[in-house]
Design goal:
- Helices cover about 30% and strands about 25% of the residues.
- By secondary structure, the chain is an alpha+beta fold.
- About 5% of the residues have low confidence.
- The strands form two sheets. Strands 4-1-5-6 form a four-stranded antiparallel beta sheet.
- It folds into two domains: about 60 residues, no CATH class; about 50 residues.
Amino acid sequence: MPNEKKFFRVKLSDHSPVNARMINGVNVTKNWQIRTGEPEAFTKFPNVEAQVVVKKGNDFVPFEEAKKAAPVIQPASTASNFEELTVEQLRTLLAAQNIPMSELRSLNKLELIERARELSGV
């Protein structure tokens, strides 16, 4: 399974006494900046905020928001009809179950439906 890129956003907190600060070779400001890797490299410094984000279309959203917005795979007794979902909806559904998007991009609709059924126990 290929490594999926991990994204996070980082900024100086609003109560930081400075407007910009060089951290790990990055000029961090009070505006959010998207970075790849692990946020811990930045959060160990005072007055720095970091948040894990996921790519959604052409934008990035906080991981917690994406998790709430993603459809949840139901148990077998109440499983939704996966055939009615679009390819993009199926990919989003499976990505919310921690399947790397890089793996999902190569699957066609029938393969995506099969993976969704496996995860839901249908």
